[in-house]
């Protein structure tokens, strides 16, 4: 069985490693114009994914639902489009990836909310 809590945690850690390494590079080189991108790799990637994973761990019935898989893929694809999209919007003037990625990120939160409402109270 897919352990969606572990998937979210592992995905969050991967973003966290990347976001922190990027922060160190930014600090060393003083290329701080990328601070918004760095902030959202850590916040949408590390912080949000870890919180999703720990919530699925706390409420196992939510993690067993099909909605949790849909939530995972929406969150992952959203982040993968949104984060480079921040760079492209800020430095290349191309906004489409930030628009689609941020709407998918928002949709993933709405799916999470729906999952809480429909599954959190079910027996473990
Ligand atoms: C090894 C770890 C990290 C390093 C070396 C690092 C480094 C930096 C640097 C150099 C800046 C730019 C500061 C400036 O504008 O002068 C920054 C900004 C920021 N970082 Fe980090 N960071 C790290 C981890 C994190 C984590 C884990 C988070 C969030 C969970 C985070 C959130 C932010 C935020 C919100 C900003 C401000 C962005 C802005 O002003 O637009 N950072 N960080
Ligand atoms: C769909 C998802 C999101 C979108 C579209 C979004 C968008 C934005 C925008 C437009 C800014 C202002 C940047 C500027 O000053 O030019 C910002 C700043 C910020 N956001 Fe987000 N955000 C999202 C998710 C989040 C999440 C989940 C967190 C925290 C867990 C977060 C934390 C922050 C923080 C701390 C700042 C101020 C630091 C900075 O300017 O980079 N954001 N965000």
Strand content: under 5%
- Regarding quaternary structure, what we see is single chain
**Rg over CA atoms:** 16 Å
* Number of extended strands: 0
What order do the SSEs take from the amino end to the carboxyl end, as H and E?
HHHHH
Please tell me about this protein's structure.
The chain has one domain (4-119). The protein is built from five helices and no strands. It has helices at residues 4-29, 35-58, 60-64, 66-92, 96-119. α1 packs parallel to α4 and α2 runs antiparallel to α4. It is elongated. The model has no long low-confidence stretch (mean pLDDT 97). It binds protoporphyrin IX containing FE (2 copies). One protoporphyrin IX containing FE binds at residues 20, 23-24, 26-27, 32, 35-36, 38-39, 42-43, 46-47. One protoporphyrin IX containing FE is lined by residues 20, 23-24, 26-27, 32, 35-36, 38-39, 42-43, 46-47.
Secondary-structure map:
Blueprint: H1 4-29, H2 35-58, H3 60-64, H4 66-92, H5 96-119
One protoporphyrin IX containing FE (HEM) binds next to helix 2 and helix 5.
Key structural traits:
124 residues; binds protoporphyrin IX containing FE; 5 helices; elongated
Quick gist of this model?
The chain is an all-alpha fold and 124 residues long.
């Amino acid at each position: 069985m897919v352990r969606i809590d572990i998937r979210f945690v592992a995905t969050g850690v991967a973003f966290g490693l990347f976001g922190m390494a990027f922060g160190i590079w930014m600090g060393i080189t003083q290329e701080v114009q990328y601070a918004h991108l760095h902030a959202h790799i850590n916040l949408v990637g590390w912080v949000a994914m870890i919180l999703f994973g720990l919530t699925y761990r706390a409420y196992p019935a939510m993690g067993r639902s099909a909605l949790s898989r849909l939530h995972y893929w929406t969150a992952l694809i959203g982040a993968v489009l949104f984060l480079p999209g921040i760079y492209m919007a800020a430095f290349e003037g191309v906004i489409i990836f930030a628009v689609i990625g941020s709407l998918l990120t928002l949709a993933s939160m709405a799916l999470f909310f729906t999952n809480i409402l429909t599954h959190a109270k079910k027996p473990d």
